[in-house]
Amino acid sequence: MNPSTALARTLVDELLRQGVTEAVLAPGSRSAPLAFALHDADIRLHVRIDERSAGFLALGLAKASGRPVPVVTTSGTAAVNLHPAVVEASYAHVPLLVLTADRPPELRGSGANQTIDQVKLYGDSARWFVEVGAPELGQEDYWRSVAVRAIACAAGGLGTPPGPVHLNLAFREPLVPDGAAVPAGRAATIRRATGTVRVEDDLPDRTLVVLGDGADLSVLELAASRGWPVIAETSSGATGPNVVDCGELLAGWQVPERVLVVGRPTLSRAIGRLVASAPSDVVASHGTWADPRHTADRVLPGVPAVSRSSTGWVAEWVEAGRRVRTAITPLLQELSEPSVAVAVASSPSPLVVGSSKPVRDLLLAPARTRVLANRGAAGIDGMISTAVGAALAWGEHTVALVGDLTFLHDSNSLVIGPDEPRPDLTIVVTNNDGGAIFGLLEQGAPEHESAFERVFGTPHGVDLEALCAATRTTYTRATTLDELRKAIRPSAGISVVEVRTDRTAAVTLDVRIREAAAAALRG
Hints:
This protein is α/β, with parallel strands linked by helices. It contains 18 helices and 17 strands.
């Protein structure tokens, strides 16, 4: 067996032995040994022509399943195109395994085609980088050891947070396989550390819990025992009697004695100000903690254990949330971005939501489980591929809610080969012809009007129906909320539902919603 084939087959064999069930491949020549090995393996393989889409597809598969997923590219800029997904996986603690093919050392710096410096290409975004080296027969135990450690490191089993691991593989020709069997090697295992850290509950009765993306939901048991209200961001997936409805609109209504922050809140400036205004405890997650304002008093290694019960003050917050819901409901009866978010959230299907405005609009919807969002780096890139990966991993009808710029940024992910697995995915696109979120920020102030439309509003004028037709993607336009609800249905494939909205009206509606909420809290 030639060394390149031996390395590829050994790695793939060990990945399967460590529990890998999915893999994503972008085509290329230098990565041919891995392509052949994956094609012949007992694994569900996904092939994508765009490396950026491939990276985010792997991220969606890994994020939804919780298991490491390898993504394979050839050398050169193909590997560079994985960088956005690697960054997102790093900040969101997603177990991504990046396998980049490379030229051997003698071709680097020589002007050889498709050859760049791939050593530590992703910098600190990779939990671990390995220059595996040009293969030689007899290194099978080393290759298996690398695979085992890579899986353990990506999954957070070696004392580091889960995240991307980068293996750079220098393949020499020949790159095509011969008929030899997979090289034998030792059956490597990893013994994971076990045990829990007990943190005593010494928090006061008037504690408020704030949950962000990736929150440890065991805190809900503690909140229920102590009678604490919970403000939960959309992607935390937290539900229950202590989760306050319209919590973001209640931020600042009362100042708690202490705030307990679990996960990574990123969606609301009002929640950020609330956390900074009171003494706060932050629960560390994966060795890091969320304290962007540097105001936390304490960092806890875990969620405090339930040790006593109290009535707390949750009833006050739940009643306030009910009043706010009653006040804003009349404003959500007509077609708008917030009303679309509320309608989408009413679907029983799991939900993938894009960054920017859609994920914030969902703060107005009742809390629900199984909401997936890329909040690690909070970019708009790769969301369609992420949704495809999540829907494939869940294996059931899934709904994605994205804005038009997010959709256009990743629209080439609708290009899927005829023999590839296809999810049952409905993509709802709120199309306001540009960037609505900026109208709600400082950039939307009247004094910036002369520059706003061109450099922030960025109208594009794209015909989404024509774009969908180019990829043979089922398209529907919903002009009412009833039409939208009817369009969100299983379809045994990918479908797009466009809802056209108005950016200027969105700014006005946001003001009206906040005024109605404030009046309800005063009353």
